[in-house]
Amino acid sequence: MTTDWTKQKRAYLCALIAVLFWSTIASAFKICLSPDYLNIKILPLLFYASVASTVTFFAYLSVLRKLNLLKGLSKEDYLRSAVLGFLNPFLYYVVLFEAYYILRAQEALTINWIWPITLVLLSIPILKQKIKLRSILAIIISFFGVFIIATGGDILGFRFTRPTGVFLALASTVIWALFWIYNVRDKSDEAVRLFLNFVFGSAFIFAAMLLFRKIEIPNVKGILGAVYIGLFEMGVTFLVWLRALKLAETTAHVANLVYLVPFFSLVVIHFVVGEEIFPSTIIGLVLIVGGIILQKLWS
Predict the structure, then answer these.
(1) CA 46, CA 81: separation in Å to the nearest integer?
(2) Which residues contact 248 (CB under 8 A, 6 or more apart)?
């Protein structure tokens, strides 16, 4: 009993560490991308962040002596990893970073949190999953939250403050959901999968920089910002989160802690980025997260 409780406490500790790191990422995105701060271009920022993540996963696999697992993968496995690497980190973060460039950090953050609902919707045609009527109600609640954020609370005026940014933030959720749907079919080690995704993703990003002539080396602050994103959005934090899930008695014991991320993020955005957090953002976020939780309870 004592041993199980100790493991559970370690699971909660790892989960909270991951939550705290992820809560800083929206601010890091905005600081790196904003003309008022570091003003790093999207492709270079993503490239250096992706390389940092790749190095992190390589080091992790080396320490655990799992690099030999790469030899057992088939050509189909590598092809799947290439496709997934195109979706994430390449396409997903290009779209998401553009959304962060256009929108306020609080808007991009909260709209992006609709992704679990997008995942449910895409699972219907792709995985042939059925959906209950009450789950549809939960989905409507979440999307109403997006509508409130996108209109800045002016729901009767139907005036979208930054429609292009809103579209991109929503599009990023589709890409993320597709990534996880197709990732489920990959039965290889999770860390190996992520390593290969980022190897291929980094190659796609570099190719895009060559194509669009966006190769540039940011200043020291820019490099540090990119490395921070690579470590604490994509790399170390995800490994800590996986550790939390493995230590937990059941994943449900720690998985729900992830819903603290957007609320903690708003606090960080306010104090670090300096944005005034609008009531419409808080109301919209509560509806989005509430709809996600209801959908899980009612599914």
Answers:
(1) 18
(2) 7, 8, 11, 15, 254
Residues whose CB falls within 8 Å of the CB of residue 51, separated by 6 or more in sequence, listed in order: 202, 230
Instruction: Give dist(CA 184, CA 172) in Å, integer.
Output: 19
pLDDT band at residue 186 under the 50/70/90 scheme = confident
**SS3 assignment, position 161:** coil
* Residue written as token pair 């792709």: 126
- pLDDT one-digit tens code per residue, 204-245: 999 999 998 777 888 999 999 999 999 999 899 999 999 998
Distance (Å) of CA 192 to CA 147, 175, 243, 254: 38, 21, 15, 23
Instruction: Give the residue ranges of DSSP H helices in the chain.
Output: 2-22, 25-33, 42-63, 75-85, 92-102, 105-112, 115-126, 133-150, 163-183, 190-212, 220-229, 236-247, 252-255, 261-268, 279-298
In terms of Cβ atoms closer than 10 Å to its own Cβ (0-12, 13-18, 19+), residue 264 is middle
Cβ atoms of residues 243 and 14 within 8 Å: yes
pLDDT at 157: 67
**How many other C-beta atoms are found inside a 10 Å radius of the C-beta of residue 219?**
10
What tokens were used for 200? 């291929």
Residue 35, φ and ψ in degrees, nearest 5:
-60, -25
pLDDT tens-place string over residues 11-55: 999 999 999 999 999 999 999 999 999 999 999 999 999 999 999
Amino acid of residue 183: N
Residue linked to tokens 């109301």: 283
d(C-alpha 218, C-alpha 258), whole Å: 32
Question: d(Cα 143, Cα 117) in Å, to the nearest integer?
Answer: 9
pLDDT at residue 2 greater than cutoff 60: no
Would you state the structure tokens that stand for residue 56, as one six-digit string? 């992190």
